Sequence to fold (90 residues):
Amino acid sequence: MRQWLTKIRKQWHIEHNRCQSCGMPLMYDRNRLHTVYCSYCHDGKTFRQSLDLKGMRRKVRSLLLDRKAPSWIRVYMHWRLATLARWRQG
Fold:
C-alpha cells in the first residue's frame, strides 16, 4: 500500500511541475531559466518559437514518435497540451 501511495505522489508531482507550453516534466530540464516553462520553449524572456497549439501538438507528437513512446502517451499528451497555461490563455 505504501509503495502504491509513493508512486501516486511522484506522478502527482510530475503532473503539477510540467512545462506550461510543451508538457515536458521540468525535473528533466537542467537549463531551466523560467519557473513554469522549460528552456526548450522559453529563454527567460520570450518564447523561442511562435507556435500555436496545433503546431506544438505536431512538434510533441513528432518527438514522442522519435522516442518510440506508446500510443496511449501520445494521445494523453495531445489532450494534455490544451490544459497547459500557455494554451489556455489564447
